[in-house]
Amino acid sequence: MKNLRIVFMGTPEFAVATLGSLIMNGFNVVGVVTAPDKPSGRGRKITQSAVKECAEFNSLPIMQPANLKDPGFISELSLLNADLFIVVAFRMLPEAVWKIPAIGTINLHASLLPDYRGAAPINHAIINGETVTGVTTFFIDEKIDTGKILLREEVPIFPFENAGDLHDRLMKYGTRLVIKTIADIAEDNINPLPQGQLAAGQTLKQAPKIHSADCIIDWNNDAVKIHNLIRGLAPLPCAKSFFKNNSSNLSFKIFESHPEFEKHTFKPGQMISDGKHFIKVACRDGFINIVNLQLEGKTRMNTAEFLKGFRIADYSVTASLPA
Question: In angstroms, rounded to a whole number, what is the distance separating the alpha carbons of residues 125 and 145?
Answer without folding.
Answer: 16
